[in-house]
Every structure is written in C-alpha cells, then in structure tokens.
Amino acid sequence: MDIHRCRFIRYPASAINAVAFTHSSLPPVSGQKKHTQKHIQVRLAIGRANGDIEIWNPLQGAWHQELVIHGGKDRSVDGLVWVTEPDEEMADGKVIHGKSRLFSIGYTTTITEWDLEQARAKKHASGQHGEIWCIGVQPPSNKGASAPGSRKLVAGTVDGNLVLYSIEDGDLRFQRTLIRSPTKKTKFVSIAFQSHNVVVVGCSNSTICAYDIRNGTMLRQMTLGTDISGGSKNIIVWAVKCLPNGDIVSGDSTGQVCIWDGKTYTQAQRIQSHSQDVLCLSVSADGSKIVSGGMDRRTAIYEPIAGQAGRWSKVFHRRYHQHDVKAMASFESKGISVVVSGGSDANPVVLPLRGAGKEYHRTLPHLPQNPPLHSAPKARFIVSWWENEIRIWHLLSPAQKLLDDPQAALGLRKNRKLLAQILVKGESHISSAAISEDGTLLVASTATDIKVFQLRLARGEHAEQPQIRKVDMPTSGHAATKVQISPDSRWISWVEEGNKVMIARVHTTESSAGVAYTISRPSKLNRLRRQIPKHLLLGGLGSYDRNITQMAFSPDSKLLAVADLAGFIDTWVLRGPGEGASGAGSRDDEGAASSDSSSDSSDEEYGDVAGERWARNPSAKLLPKLTAAPVVLSFSKTRREDGDYDLLTITAVKTLLVFNPLRGALSEWSRRNTYPKLPAPFRDTRDQVKGVVWQGHRAWIYGVSYLFMLDLSRDLDPEKDSAGQKQGTKRKRGVQESGAGGKMEKHSLAPQRVKAAVGPDGAKWEDVEMADADDQKSISASSGVDDDDDDDDEDIDGGELQRLRDDQGAAAQANGDDAAGAGKQVTKPAAATAAATAAAAAKWWHTYQFRPILGIVPLEGGPGLANGDVSEGRLPPLEVALVERPLTSEDLPERYFAENEWER
C-alpha cells in the first residue's frame, strides 16, 4: 500500500465547555427487576465552543461517539443539563423509564432543548434577563417521585437574576424571575441544588448564596473574604456542588476548594489544592470523593479523613490536560465508575472514580468518529470540511512516482494543490459531505438544507482550476445528517430527521456548453418494521437508537445498505425496467401505514424515465440485529463467484462480521472466523474503528491510533492462552474495571517528592507530576463489554448470530460441504520455513506509526493493475491519503498565567 502522509488538511480543535451524563448514578441491580436495569440508556453529552454537541455511549468502557449535532455561526455550548422524568408502570407490569431531555445554554438569553431522535434543536425559550451563565435542574422531591411538571430549570444570569423555566408537559417556557440582585455588578456564575427546594448559587462578589425557590427568600449568604495580597478584590466562585449529606463544596478563583456545613452554612475547611482558579467540581454518588479541575491543568481527588467527621484531604493531583480544565461530570453504576473532564485542549479525559489510584486514565480523541474527509479516487481529489468551509485538494502525482524521484522530499511539497474553497451560505455548519468518484459532483448538507455543486475542470497549461456551479434541488428545506453519492454518480442518498432514508436520481444532459446535472424529485426508502417493545419507545431516549449512522453503496451502485445505532441493517436493490419489486414494503419504521408508501414504489411518482427504481432487498429481514452499534459498514470492491458483494460491518465492541446481503446470510469466512480468532491486538485496542479501505480481499481497517490489515480470503489462526490451549467461543470473565483505562501494575498514584533548590538559602520539597508513559500502557488493555454479570458464558456475537452460524453449518453439511475442514488450520513444525512464516504473517498486520488519524481515503492513477482488478491472483495496487491531525500548541488558546519552569 502506497501512503501519502498528509498533515496540511486542517481540522480545528474546539474547546470543551460542558459535559453532562443522563444519570449521575444508577441503583444496583439487587432489589430491581433485571430487565429494567439493563434497558436504562446512559449517555454522555459534550458541548463545545463551536456549538457542537456530541453524544457518547460509555459501553462499559468502549466509549463510542454515537452522534454529533453540529453547531452554527457564533454559537457556543457553555452549559448542559439532562432532565429525566420519573418512571411509569404499565398495566402489564413493565416499566417505562422516564424520558431523558437535554438542555443547553450558550452565554445568551436563550435555553435550547435538543431533539436527539432528529439530531437538531427542538425548542428555544428566553426571557427578559441578561445572558445565562449557569443552569441547574430541580431534583425530585425526597417525599417520592415527583410529577414531571413539578420540576423546573433554574438559571443564573450575568446581571444577577435567578430565573425559573417551566418544562411541564414536554414544553419549555420562561416562567418568572425568582431573584433580582440589587446591583447588576454581581454575576451568578455557578449553581447546584442542595435539596428539592433549596438552590446554592456561586457569585462573582466573593459570596455563596442559598435560596428557597418556592418564595425566592435568601436562606443564608456565605462569604469567602478577599483574595490574597495583590490579587483581585472579589473572589469568583466558579463551581459549586452539594454532597448527599447536604454539605456544600465550592471552587473559586484563589485556587481553593472549600467545604461548607450544609446545616449551619459555615465554612468547615479550606484546601489550597490549585495554583490557579478552580473551574469545575464533581462529587461521587455516595459522597466519598470530590474531584476538582482548574486553570493550572491539575485534576485533584479528595477523600474524607478517617476518624475526623467532615474533614477532607487531597489524595493526589495530576495533569491529564494540556490546558485549562473547564468542565467535568461523574457517573456510577454497577459496572462503571468514572469522571469525564474536558477543557481547552479539546480532548475528553476519562478518570477512574471508584478505582482511583488503581487504574489508568484514558484520553478520548478530539477527532470525530465519522471522518470529515472524502475522496474522488479517479480524479485524485481530497475533500475536507469543517464549520461552513469545504476545501478541495488535488494530489498530482502517484506515491510510487515520488518514491522513484531522487528529489522526493521536494516533490512531496509540490505534489498537492488547493483547487477550491467553498463557503456554504447559512448559519448552520456542515454535517456531512461527499464527492463523486470522478470529482464532478459535490454534495454538502447542513441542519437546514442540502447543497449540490457541479465541478467542471478547466484545463490549463500547468494546473486545473474547477468551475463550480450550483445544482438546484427539486425541493427546498431538506436537511441531512449523512449524504452519499453512488460510485456511478447516478444516485444521491441521504438521511433526514435521523432515520429517514431518501434517494434521488442524478440526470446528465449534454449541450454545447458541456455536461449539466439535474436532480430528480427525491423519494423515501421504507425501512423494515422492527418489533420494538412499546415501553422502550415511550421512555428513556425514545427511538434515538434508530438513528442511522452508517450508509454504503455497492461498487456497481445496485445495492444500498444503512445501519442504525440499535444494530439493525436495511438493504435495498436497484430494479431495472420490467424487474419485480419483490420485498418492497408499504409500512414505515414504526409500523404505521406510510402516507407516501405508494409513491415510494411507483415509477410515475418517482419520475425516472428509464424505469429504474429501488426496492427492498427480499433477504433484508434475514440479516440479524447486531449486538452493538456499527462503526463501519462497507461493501467489498470485488464480486464473489455468485455475483454478490460482501458487506463488512464492525461494531463498537470490535465484533467483525461479513454478510452476503443478497442471500441474507453470514459469509463462510465470517462463520469460521469468530470473534476469539481475531488478532488479539485488534480485539484489545480501546480506540474505535473509524473506517476501512479495500485492496482486493484485504481490508485495511483504521482507528485514530492504529492501522490494521485483515486478509478476508484466509482463515485466521485461533488465539492461544498462556497454557497453549485454543480459546473457545465463550466469554471469559476478567477483572472488573471502572470504564476508564486498564488496571495498574502497581497500585500507587501518589506524586513522588524530590528535593529541588529554589534559592540560595537551601532547598524545599516540591511535588513532581507522574510520567505520562502510563497512557501508552492503557492502550493494550482489553475493551470487552459485559451487558450483565448474571449472563454467564454468553457468546460474544449474540444468540441470534450464533443461531445463524449454526443454521448455515447444518445446511453446509446437508449439501456435503465440509465446513469444519474448510476452517481447519495446518499445524506447522517448530522449524517452519521462512516462506511459511511470511505467509502466516500476511493474514493480518498492524502498526501504531500514525496518530492521530483524521481519516484515510483511497486514490487511483498509480502504475500497474487498475484498482479492483485481481487477475492472476495478484492484489491490486492501493494508494491512499492518510491524514493526521496532531494537536499542537498552535491549536490551543494562550494561557492566562505563565508557568514555573519546573512545571513544564
């Protein structure tokens, strides 16, 4: 594989301003029905300075970025809160978990509610007050589960007002102003609820105030005094939290964490744990740990002092971030106990909470799960996008030619050319984009519209400058979360409202002015009806997991496949004139009669004069539900002997499956090469898979920090344990982890003390940060997922997939095929030949040389065989552009204060 290592493609890092979990903790399974605990949906929301909101699924430590709701011009997310309504019990005894609603603020006068099912803003509300700087949600009453309408949103403003917003009956509206500050110089900066009716507010005038929200009376005002000599006159209370026993924790601009008695509202303790401002706090569900983060990049953990009630001590601190730590949130349940923090360096960091000091932390990537990168292989174009800007690059010469050039270093710099920059009009940022393989058609989607552009290449003596012309869509108002162009450039498909699949035909007309494109009226492709229990659709996140995240066309453009977060795969086939539409459905995803189902399957309504139409694959219902959300969905580039293309899917828990979509069955290779036979480095890596590039029957799979090659034409060798025995297909119980990094070899995270001379009078003890080499050790730890510890020896691929394998094995034996013999490996002697060793090594290969990888896209035009040609058993040449986007100091904002030399 020839690689163009590209670092000139930009993708600006955006600071993390807010993080929030749907639940702070979940009760233990004991005392609850098992199914109720298992179906509770826990998600992490991350808000960024560019207005993006990311939704992450912890997945017991796998950490999958499921959704990105893109922001817009001059938008910022500076605060996030989840509101979970109380559970309801149905007549049949099943429990409807309370709906989870997500709200955000952005240093404006507006509160926004987000619709995760359609990946867009749902409601906006504002009142006659200043900019909102903090927001909190009223907890349920201690007397029992409160009604949905009895809880409020409470917001603090820059002009010293405390305002109430009503969220009754699924609505969002301004209700009234609760507190008006006598002076507008006082700012309400942070907020936390001590009880159902008592809210604690951190102010900019060195005070912390407790209010009764029923009547707006001030219960107590706590004063921090003034800053140290030479500092600010007023102390800013950047963060406040309340412990389960009612005590109050505050972090301020002096770098101190203060503990306040929740009954007398007096200061019980003051800990100087930071050298600069404390910006965020988090507490464990049982009140046994406090975590703080600040401008000095430190993250500190505190625990109660044994035998001294109400007294705390700092256990340790460490610098996990490269810049200010601005936000953090914690979550605890039976199998996970973590704190997630974020700041100006854009990287979310997962810290173990219950296992603090015994497990490594984990840094999640700042790059998106779905790469903002696409290529036109035949034209050798690379398209990248961020916010409202699209850039089109041209790689002039093949990589092999550059390697043969004696002045290759100079050639690499001259090999790229920026052809065009396109600024998409509107306030919404680009959510997805795609370019046709010949580089003549470009599609970009935002939260409000879909833009289509035609690129005409005007050839000059030394360069090619494209002429860009906008192509009109037949209807306006379409918004898409994902767009795709078929390989033959005749079809454009996209996803509307999160789960609706649309498709439109691209017509070409030739004239004296050249070729022109027109787009036909789009049509909806109906998905299979899925039997989802009603109590699951009505509660939690609703039908959020039916959001489509993966879409792929087959190389001949006659198959289309999509996959959603729930693990369902839908496929359609292109029917020619006179071909039957067997399998076309007439009902939509929720099972109700579709109002436009007749137009979806009608040639006249579709408007295609050639008579081609898309119909549901008759074997689509045979594809099983995946055990986790797919992160890769891709058709192989070569046909099998029966004319079908293999469909590769990789899930968030590293399950790799190959389907034959037209038969609705697992391929023979996938049936023989189950999860335990996959290479251990592939199974054990914690970073999610981002994409795949095909080279004949070889799949080059990449993540943010690795590149793997799997040969899907050869069976993999079974992994062996330390005793030399083959592993079975049953899951092995491992050491329980908290959801961050792996277990430490040495259970110690205390900072080492060294003697450093600081002046002519002698020396003093200073704390030295631990080495960052621990981060590399955590990469190799296992990322297995246990849905429930009570499910002993559950197959890693799920029961439905195992039954599919068993059924296919029985059918193969009935036809006289020796399926077991086909998967059997030849045992080689100890003195194996070099050729045999090399052949065995060619089954899979991996490297960690490139990081962090934004994306990898294929190119064509190299010497030798044409891409896709596998004649005479040879692999076709593969040329790719590998784009790295390392986070450098230039991407980070300037620091407020200079650091001491020894701290660098």
Automatic annotation (TrEMBL):
WD repeats lie at residues 271-303. Residues 785-798 have a biased composition (Acidic residues). The keyword Transport does not apply. One of its GO terms (biological process) is maturation of SSU-rRNA from tricistronic rRNA transcript (SSU-rRNA, 5.8S rRNA, LSU-rRNA). Keywords: WD repeat. Residues 579-609, 718-824 are annotated as: Disordered. GO terms for cellular component: 90S preribosome; small-subunit processome; t-UTP complex. Residues 809-823 have a biased composition (Low complexity). One of its GO terms (molecular function) is RNA binding. The keyword Hydrolase does not apply. It holds the Pfam family WD40. This is Uncharacterized protein. It comes from Thermothelomyces thermophilus (strain ATCC 42464 / BCRC 31852 / DSM 1799).
